[in-house]
Amino acid sequence: MPEKKLSFEDAMKRLEEVVRQLETGNAPLSDSLALFEEGISLVRRCSDELTAAEKKIKDLSADETD
Question: CA-to-CA distance for 62 and 13, rounded, in angstroms?
Fold first, then answer.
């Protein structure tokens, strides 16, 4: 699933699906590694988006106090 076109919320939902699939332990090793790689990519993407949102909130809040 191409993460670049997903909204933040859809990326989080996909991450939850990936985690559920990995937790079952039923996937072959190669599939598990691919899922893990996708999960790491989704975590990084979501983390980056949250960091950007936090910075924007801080910047907007700072503008209000000036």
Answer: 32
- 4-22 residues labelled b (16+ CB within 10 A) or e (exposed): eebeeeebbebbeebeebb
Q: What are the chain's domains? A: 7-65 (1.10.287.1040)
* pTM exceeding 0.70: yes
CA dihedral 37, 41, 46, 48 (to 10 degrees): 140
Q: pLDDT of 10-22, one tens digit each?
A: 999 999 999 999 9
